[in-house]
Amino acid sequence: MYTPKHFKIEDEQQIYEFLKQNSFGMLISSHDRLSASHLPFSIDQKAKKLYGHMARANQQWKELEGDEVLIIFQGPHAYISPQWYAEENTVPTWNYMAVHIYGKFVIQNNGETVMNQLESMVDTYESGFETPWKVDISSEYNQNLVKHIVGFEIEIKNIQCKFKLNQNHPIERRKNAIHGLRTTNQHESIQIADAMEKSLSDH
């Protein structure tokens, strides 16, 4: 990922917080051909691993044992109009937040481990609800479903993080862009405005 110094994020805690908030990623591989799957992931910062699963009918996993793969995690993104800067000689751009992870793909053959990973993933995503749903992995219904998926882990080798939030612009221009984003009243524009404000307060 092309990442000019203005936009490069190296703080590990900040990166993992982003991953936990944006954990639906795109698994990309190039064994004999380019393949991509859109999947939810569990993030283990301490072990430096990602955990996931995909349909057994998905051909991608059959090619990947031991291969290097790329997982892309996309955060909010928004168009930036030059009119918001209220200055001449400005152009449109697109602000966004993204993390690229390169790692080794390892198929998880231990059924109990896969079920534990599934339970942990469900618990993570249910935790934000007032009354979280609890999965019964041991039920006959779920046991049959598990037979149709393949669990895997990614041993993280390299992380690239880019938050393109107008950091290369003067502060006043950035504030004007934040105001402009908020006038659009679009969900991701508001998220980008929030991220831009945070980047201002961090410096």
Structure write-up:
The chain has 203 residues and is of the alpha+beta class. It has one domain: Electron Transport, Fmn-binding Protein, Chain A (Pnp Oxidase, Chain A, Roll), CATH 2.30.110. The chain is built from five helices and seven strands; from the N terminus they run αββββββααβαα. The chain has helices at 12-21, 111-126, 140-146, 171-184, 187-201, and strands at 24-30, 34-40, 42-44, 49-55, 68-80, 93-108, 149-164. A seven-stranded antiparallel sheet has the order 2-1-5-6-7-4-3. Helix 4 packs antiparallel against helix 5. The protein is elongated, with a radius of gyration of 20 Å. It starts with 11 loop residues before the first helix and ends with a helix. Pfam families: FMN_bind_2.
